[in-house]
Amino acid sequence: MDPNDRGPEEYGHDADGSSPRQRPPRDPLTTDFGQHTPALARTVQLVTGDYLLTVNPVDGSEIEACPPSQRPERPVKLTADERVETDRAARPPVPPGQTQPSLPLLERQDDRERLVRLLARGRSVLLTGPAGSGRTSLLDLVAGDCADLAPDGVVRLDGFHRTADDLLHDLFYAVYNAPLYRPAPEELRALVREIGAVVVLDDLEFGGAALDELLDATPECAFLIAATPDVPGPSVDSAVEEVFLAGLDRAGGVEILERAVGRVLTEEEANWAGDLWFESEGLPLRFVQAGALLRQRDRIRNGTGAVDEFGVFADALPVDAPFETEPGDEVPLPSLGEAAAPAPLLAARLSASARATLRFAVALGGEVPHQAHLPALVGDTHADAALGELAGCGLVTPVGTRYRLAAGVPAQLMAAGYGDDVEAQALAAARHYAWWAGHPSVTPERVCAEADALLTALDLLVPGTTAPAEDEESVTVQLARTAAPAFAAGLHWSAWERALRSGAQAAELSGEVSEQAYFHHELGILALCGGDFDQARAELEIAVGMRGAVADKRGTVAGRRALTLVADRTGTTPGLGSTAGEEVPDARSEESQSPPGGVPAVVLALPPGGDGTTLVTHHSGAPGPSRARRGGLRGLARRNLVAAGAGALLAAVLGTVVTLGATSNNDADNPSNQVGPNPSASQGLEDGSLGADLPANDDGKSDTGTATSRPTDPGPDGTFGTSDDPTPPADTSKPSDNPSGTHGGGAPHSPSHSPSHSPSNTPSNTPTDPGTPTDPGTPTDPGTPTDPGTPTESPTTTPTEPSTTDTASGPASSAPVETTSSASAPEATTASGSADVI
User: What is the pTM of this model?
Assistant: First the structure.
């Protein structure tokens, strides 16, 4: 049987009377050896709570707030016909092969009637019995008797490896028609409270407070729960009736043997059955297995093989059978020890395919692969019939929609050597399941049905995962990578989480960073769907970091989008330094954080009475508490603009400083050392302008075509304008501090054109500001002319508000004059406050 093509009875989806799905007709001109189009990745979009989740097995799932137009309507309950189909799908498939005799449920009629009466009153019942006591068979009978008791009928659930939350979701999907929808916890509990059904729950593995929570969430349901005695019961306050299921008496055991063999037991066989009853405490499973031993004995005595019984096995009597006899020879009964642990003896007399199936089941922790997978796993086209052999011998038992090894069988087979090659068997199963789960034709529901087998293989192989060879992929990582998206799309999220955690560990051991990033991304998405935002942020940050390291752009985008959603849900803003959306400490609203030593924020301060420049290094303080904390792309753009502007301005000023240093010398006759605070107009160049800056036209150029630039006060943005007045009013109270003798804000004169400065003895016509003395030590009388031979000492402090004009002194002249003022280089000192004057 092809595992990709379901039979009419598999999972109960196709036996509805409709015609089977037809394959598209094959083009007769197309050969089988032609290149096929690669299958597209299977993506599934579903709604979970307030989110729209797109399960993407390639780049990672994407999640967003669900638009109102895509939110599903309120789920409606299934109809009666749909409930019948759902109930049939919840049962295990019928094993292929010859039908074994149906054994009656003996000595259980009183228990059966009592359970029905309690359920009819709306009471919940906990049926407790040891493994092999026939709990599952009794549940099937009671479920048939209670079909018409509740408005929503009977719902069958499997509690094996399931939590209370898993069972609530299983109950919801068994009653409501809600494809691709996983309700939020509040909505889920509101919907299950409206369910009125008899819930038959087998193989429950939890009790106590978790069981009380399950019962409280479904007040309109009556539960029939089957569990082993080691499972804790409900609390004392819960209204749950407990019924204990004991073993059979001796007569019942003998009757089961006779029905299994199809004849009356001999006296020797009856005594053997009595010893078995005493040893097994009357468990029905042990008599079913003992009946299989007697059938094999009869077949050997009569010389008939499985070819006559099944019609397909030529190797039914294996060469390693414990004994070979001729027809008519007497075959001894199995010993009491062999009857107490019959699994190795039963398996030795089965077909090779059945024994190979048992090896896979032992390797998978007792999980028997679905019959559709057995031909591929075993390598026999008829291996699917092996499940019928195992079921007829009592070596497997139904659990939900699948089969597992019966109680005690795994330990017996391990002792017989069936677990010697566990890792090899698990690796072969993992290869098969990795190919099968990733095939586009396999639905997520079918993968979820094999969840326990896949997860067991992962748990076994992950600790021994190593780095694969070149051009190879780790089988463990590949299995988790293909199974996890199917579990997510099939809404089996507990299996999804287990697969992701196993995959992340395997990817870390194998060194596959990109795969490890995928698993962390999916874990973050899962935590986000569950409302655990801290866990989601941590997992997504790890994934984004890893994907950035391997240059996975699409995956990085998906991770950042999910982080943005986390930030939106938590009320935080994702910052530049924290991709998770945390508030960045000491972040500034409009600029980046300054280093401890201060950022060289360039400020051009004009000293009073001159047009020189002063370089100030600003020491930034701690940001004030009133500054808003922002970040993100907008903050990054503003920071980049601020940094670019400051860098350009700093480069310009440093270039000016370097030029000034290159043109300076230690000549004692340097004219810049011979100029006082009231310089006179110097001789101009050969253009008749005496070197003065000509007034600018509307286009910012002088009449001669040269752009004029006269520095003025820095504006609010730290830039400097130009002055259009070539001879602004003089201010002798603010001395010049320009060491270069530059023209306005332009370049310095070349040495060949340096004018000879003649000091002016004419007092300034502009009154001196009394609040700003020229010399802090000796104030200058504004009415007394300055001695041209003695330059005025430069101030030692930087004025609070620099002047915006130049100083010009001397007699009025109709021709424009050059206003150059300078100060010696050693006069530059440190200004007061938090600025360093250079």
Answer: 0.65
